[in-house]
């Protein structure tokens, strides 16, 4: 029994599926570098970097002509080292679209010989760090305003009072770095508070 040609074409990619992938993790906005060693006979052959999970559908992103030095296109670069028989692939300014499967390999006259396969995943670590920094800054600002207004919690076990000691440590550190500027800002805030109170008292006296 002969299989239809359409069915053969559907089964063809399955014959080229790759199962041995090296997992690589990157950070949004960062860079990744993958190393691809090769044999002596491939020293002067072209080197390639393609995107895809199978040999049939691996789209070439960058290729060299076999010479040493760096070849770059967009955010991808290949640097070949003939002495150590290895070439490196660097991906810069990583984005969510870079999360995929890739292969590095050798350009043969009429084919592509893959050397290693990679699975790249991208995390949002930079966003998390920014959020933590913003939260910490807001906590310092709110606590400093509470100190100036005199609205401190009386309960010693209060969560706000427990975090107050940590804020004091940060404030001491900041003042040691920028003491004149910090003192000037604090003095200005206190002066404005007193001025507002005097204006309110004067207004109440006139009424």
UniProtKB/TrEMBL annotation:
<dbReference type="GO" id="GO:0007165">
    <property type="term" value="P:signal transduction"/>
</dbReference>
<keyword id="KW-1015">Disulfide bond</keyword>
<feature type="transmembrane region" description="Helical">
    <location>
        <begin position="167"/>
        <end position="191"/>
    </location>
</feature>
<keyword id="KW-0812">Transmembrane</keyword>
<protein>
    <recommendedName>
        <fullName>Immunoglobulin V-set domain-containing protein</fullName>
    </recommendedName>
</protein>
<dbReference type="GO" id="GO:0005886">
    <property type="term" value="C:plasma membrane"/>
</dbReference>
<keyword id="KW-0732">Signal</keyword>
<dbReference type="Pfam" id="PF07686">
    <property type="entry name" value="V-set"/>
</dbReference>
<dbReference type="InterPro" id="IPR050671">
    <property type="entry name" value="CD300_family_receptors"/>
</dbReference>
<feature type="signal peptide">
    <location>
        <begin position="1"/>
        <end position="17"/>
    </location>
</feature>
<dbReference type="InterPro" id="IPR036179">
    <property type="entry name" value="Ig-like_dom_sf"/>
</dbReference>
<feature type="domain" description="Immunoglobulin V-set">
    <location>
        <begin position="23"/>
        <end position="112"/>
    </location>
</feature>
<keyword id="KW-0472">Membrane</keyword>
<keyword id="KW-1133">Transmembrane helix</keyword>
<dbReference type="GO" id="GO:0004888">
    <property type="term" value="F:transmembrane signaling receptor activity"/>
</dbReference>
<dbReference type="InterPro" id="IPR013783">
    <property type="entry name" value="Ig-like_fold"/>
</dbReference>
<dbReference type="InterPro" id="IPR013106">
    <property type="entry name" value="Ig_V-set"/>
</dbReference>
């Amino acid at each position: 029994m002969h299989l239809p040609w359409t069915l053969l074409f559907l089964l063809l990619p399955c014959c080229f599926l790759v199962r041995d992938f090296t997992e690589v993790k990157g950070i949004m906005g960062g860079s990744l570098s993958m190393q691809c060693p090769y044999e002596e006979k491939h020293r002067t052959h072209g080197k390639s970097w393609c995107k895809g999970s199978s040999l049939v559908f691996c789209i070439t992103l960058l290729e060299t002509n076999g010479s040493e030095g760096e070849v770059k296109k967009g955010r991808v670069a290949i640097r070949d080292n003939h002495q150590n028989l290895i070439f490196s692939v660097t991906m810069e300014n990583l984005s969510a679209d870079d999360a995929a499967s890739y292969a590095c390999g050798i350009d043969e006259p009429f084919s592509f010989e893959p050397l290693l396969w990679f699975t790249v995943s991208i995390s949002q670590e930079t966003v998390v760090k920014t959020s933590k920094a913003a939260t910490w800054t807001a906590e310092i600002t709110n606590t400093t305003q509470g100190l100036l207004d005199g609205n401190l919690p009386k309960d010693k076990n209060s969560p706000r009072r427990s975090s107050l000691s940590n804020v004091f440590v940060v404030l001491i550190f900041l003042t040691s770095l920028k003491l004149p500027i910090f003192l000037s800002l604090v003095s200005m805030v206190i002066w404005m508070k007193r001025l507002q109170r005097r204006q309110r008292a004067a207004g109440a006296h006139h009424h």
